[in-house]
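Quick question, first post here. What does this chain look like in 3D?
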Amino acid sequence: MKIIVLSGGAAAGVVKGIQADFETSYDCLIDGTYSAVGAMRDLVVKGNPCDLVILSKALVQELVSSNHVIENSVRSLGIVPTGIAIPSSRKTPIPKIESVDDLKTAFRTAPALYFPDMQKSTAGIHFMKVMQQLGLDQELASRFKTFPNGATAMSEMTNDPDSNVLGGTQTTEINICPGVQLIGLLPPSLELNTDYTLAICKNSQNPELTLKLADILVGQASLALRQKIGYLIKS
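> Answer (accepted):
Ran it through. Tokens below.
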């Protein structure tokens, strides 16, 4: 038996963290795809097989409205902030990002900037807005290195021969990537906190087992894991 999960990259660490135990307990396989939330939403809308979807709250609500997911199955995993990262191998001082001016200087100083998809991913779309707000979207466009999701962007950043590069994505993607260090969140006036939300798909082939997985992902069994990788849990 298989459960197909289509998810934003910010939830990958949670699903993968409980996957082995769940598969053993229920004699099943979790088949997860983790990428830009917009791309995952598009797959659901196109009718791709899917049991459980994990996206931003806004996109899940779109799928409720379009009748692709079961409305009373919608639940939150928690809030994920957006942060700035550097390669752990960096030898020069960590750039300051406390203020808008600090962040602007850090972006301008970096030889390359690593982000997830700036059209379909939650963090990537936001970082493009930040660049536009800072007036850097054209000035630094040639330095943007974009990838389908934040996890890939962070992984690719570690391969850059220049360790002074900078990147940004959801904190939960930064925290689970080897060789990457979270240096802080965006300044308050530029911050983005995303409510990652799950729902069971209308075309689920295994709705009862999928419900058991959903219960674990939003429940006490995964709470410590979610907090460890960067989720802020709503009270």
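The beta strands are 2-8, 29-35, 52-56, 75-87, 113-116, 144-147, 166-170, 180-185, 193-200.
The chain is about 35% helix and 25% strand.
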